[in-house]
Specification:
Elements lengths: L12 H12 L3 H14 L4 E7 L5 E6 L6 H7 L11 H4 L11 H6 L3 E7 L6 E6 L6 E5 L4 E7 L6 H5 L4 H18 L4 E6 L2 E6 L4 H8 L8 E7 L3 E8 L11 E5 L2 E2 L3 H10 L12 E7 L4 E2 L10 E2 L2 H18 L17 E2 L14 E3 L5 E2 L6 H9 L4 E2 L2 E5 L5 H4 L7 E2 L17 E7 L3 E6 L2 E6 H17 L7 E10 L2 H9 L1 H7 L2 E6 L2 E7 L8 H18 L4 H13 L9 H11 L15 E5 H7 L4
Parallel strand pairs: 1-7, 11-13
Antiparallel strand pairs: 1-2, 2-6, 3-4, 3-6, 4-5, 7-8, 9-10, 10-13, 11-12, 14-15, 16-17, 17-18, 19-20, 21-28, 22-23, 23-24, 24-28, 25-27, 26-27
Helix pairs in contact: 2-7, 7-8, 7-14, 9-10, 13-15, 13-17, 13-18, 14-16, 16-17
């Protein structure tokens, strides 16, 4: 006889709901997203969102949608209860935003929830009140047609979850960004958005063009390029920006699929590839685009927040999007008519790193001919080399010369002639750069500084060197070690979008310590009165806005230290540029300032600044020893 006691059991509903809430409700923004999607699915034409304490204390959603009868209201908070799916075929062709029947049940398991709702045919509405582990209350009430939902004290019963929420400013910014996405994907809907008693925006139904200029600023309208393209399977519409408003980050890139916000490396690459020859390297185009495709051709049920999707034919969608953007740019004379045939690189594989064997495992390789994301399991240089050199290629002299497959390992057996200086190298001190030790200095290709000393030639990357200098100055300024500000003769007026203004509130103290002094004129306008010393005249606005947009981008993808992030962005934007001609005095100052830095050997991004070419190494290469 087996006396072992069974240990497997069914979880109570309230525990199961809290586990589900961990996937569906990650932060207050998740609640706002799920509830606004329900309002859209209910056919609402007006939606109001009110939050208090960044949504931790209160999230209040009001809509004028279809509302619910008493029976549907009671059913709505139960797990897997939905009005959108009835059959397997419905699941394979999802047209609504919500469909799993988990959102309300999950929210009710981690907050106190009150719902008031009324249909057009009912003489009065119904009110439901629910709290975790307590009986549901439901009773008649007077309310307008539609639905109101109050979510109070989010995560009050899950202290570990509440503990890991970010600051109110950061959590509110997440909510704001989600509201902007809804406003951009549904310009025909009226949206009202309040933070406590402060109106953030009140957007009336409009065209997408007018909605964009309302959310960002009216100056942008001259730079918007209309995109409208379709075939029998798919169509795309929206706006992209002219090359002049390309940014150094991806903060103004919104992609929607059947008006659902999505993230797609492949489609983002398709868009950026169309700009390949008309924007600077490492710049990102502005775009707000909606792709419409048969729901049967896409799976949106692959991510808890439904951000990631899978297409039946990824190659077709990639090619279509790339062609649509190229066509729009041609219509505005940013691309020649034959660019469409040449905007795909001769080499179909886009490398993210020059040496894939040194890169991280998550490098993304995209076939530029198809948009397919390739397997990046290329572990050594020889394999990677074979992709490019497996067949002879013609040089510019025709067939006279052929490239040979290179054996990287043989080349690497000899010691490199150029030696990168490690961080802890003690031989390159300020003493080595004493005027008596330096024989001569010169600039090569307006990019590198050559310093001839008694024993070597030192090569300095001028941009990376100045980055390091400004980075350490910025860190000291933000630590209040010294003043780093110059007053502007003429104040600069700057227009910001709502996301940038929200970010400014988060980093107000840091950015003022850096040397930016400003006054707030309105919800979207500031006036700059002082800027850090090293910002050149005429570049005040772009430096200020770049710091804000980079801060938003960095906070999205990692937990980068806030002060380091601001200092690195400032230094990169304000540093001497590659291609900039320097005078002998500027070269001397750059060298002196560099070797007063605490870490003169690497830039803030980790790239080397200095290469040491010793006389002994040169002699060896010329067989003089």
């Amino acid at each position: 006889m087996n006396d072992a006691k069974h240990i497997i059991h069914i979880l109570p509903d309230y525990i199961a709901n809290q586990i589900a809430a961990g996937e569906v409700v990650q932060r207050p923004e998740s609640v706002v997203k799920e509830l606004v999607e329900n309002s859209l699915d209910a056919g609402a034409k007006e939606i109001g969102v009110f939050v208090r304490d960044a949504g931790k204390q209160l999230i209040h959603i009001i809509d004028n949608g279809s509302g619910m009868c008493k029976e549907d209201l009671e059913m709505s908070i139960k797990r897997h209860s939905t009005s959108k799916i009835f059959t397997q075929e419905d699941l394979e062709a999802i047209k609504s935003f919500g469909f799993r029947g988990e959102a309300l049940a999950s929210i009710c398991s981690v907050a106190s929830v009150e719902i008031r709702t009324k249909t057009a045919s009912d003489s009065h509405g119904w009110k439901l009140i629910t709290e975790p582990m307590k009986p549901i209350q439901i009773e008649p009430c007077f309310t307008d047609k539609g639905t109101q939902i109050f979510v109070r004290n989010l995560f009050f019963n899950v202290p570990a979850r509440r503990k890991f929420l970010r600051s109110n400013l950061t959590e509110f910014r997440y909510i704001s960004e989600t509201m902007f996405k809804f406003a951009l994907s549904h310009p025909e809907i009226a949206f009202t958005f309040y933070d406590a008693d402060t109106l953030i925006f009140n957007l009336k139904p409009s065209s997408l063009f007018d909605r964009i200029t309302s959310i960002f600023n009216r100056d942008i309208k001259e730079s918007l390029i209309n995109v409208k393209y379709e075939n029998e399977l798919i169509k795309i519409n929206g706006f992209v920006g002219s090359p002049q408003i390309a940014k150094l980050n991806q903060t103004v890139q919104y992609l929607f699929l059947n008006r659902r916000n999505i993230r797609s490396k492949s489609l983002s690459h398709a868009i950026i590839s169309a700009y390949e020859h008309i924007i600077e390297k490492n710049s990102y185009p502005f775009y707000i685009l909606n792709i419409e495709i048969n729901p049967n051709s896409v799976d949106v049920n692959v991510h808890p927040q439904k951000y990631e999707v899978k297409f039946d034919d990824e190659r077709m969608v990639y090619g279509f999007v790339n062609k649509a953007i190229s066509h729009a740019l041609q219509n505005y004379n940013y691309l020649s008519n034959n660019t469409e045939n040449f905007q795909i690189s001769q080499n179909p594989i886009s490398k993210v790193d020059n040496d894939i064997s040194k890169g991280p495992d998550n490098i993304v390789l995209i076939n530029k001919l198809t948009g397919e994301i390739l397997d990046n399991n290329l572990k050594n240089k020889e394999n990677f080399s074979s992709i490019y050199h497996s067949s002879p290629r013609e040089s510019s002299f025709g067939n006279s010369f052929q490239y040979k497959k290179v054996n990287f390992e043989i080349l690497n057996k000899d010691k490199d002639i150029f030696q990168i200086i490690p961080n802890d190298n003690s031989n390159l001190s300020q003493a080595n750069f004493d005027k008596h030790n330096i024989l001569s200095t010169w600039q090569a290709h307006n990019k590198y500084i050559f310093v001839q000393t008694q024993n070597s030639i030192i090569i300095i990357d001028q941009h990376a060197a100045h980055e390091r200098i400004l980075y350490e100055k910025a860190l000291k300024a933000m630590s209040k070690e010294f003043s780093y500000s110059q007053e502007l003769l003429f104040p600069v007026e700057i227009s910001l979008n709502f996301v940038e203004m929200s970010a400014l509130k988060e980093i107000e103290n840091d950015i003022q310590n850096l040397g930016f002094y400003y006054g707030i004129k309105s919800q979207t306008e500031v006036t700059l009165y002082s800027v850090p010393n090293d910002i050149k005249s005429g570049e005040e606005e772009i430096a200020f806005k770049t710091i804000l947009s980079e801060y938003v981008q960095n906070q999205k993808v990692s937990s980068i230290n806030r002060i380091d992030s601001i200092a690195a962005t400032f230094s990169c934007k304000s540093a001497i540029k590659t291609g900039q001609k320097l005078t002998s005095m500027e070269i001397e100052k750059l060298i002196n300032d560099l070797f007063e830095c605490q870490m003169p050997h690497v830039c803030p991004h980790g790239r080397p600044i200095i290469i040491d070419l010793s006389i002994n190494e040169l002699d060896k290469r010329f067989h003089r020893t």
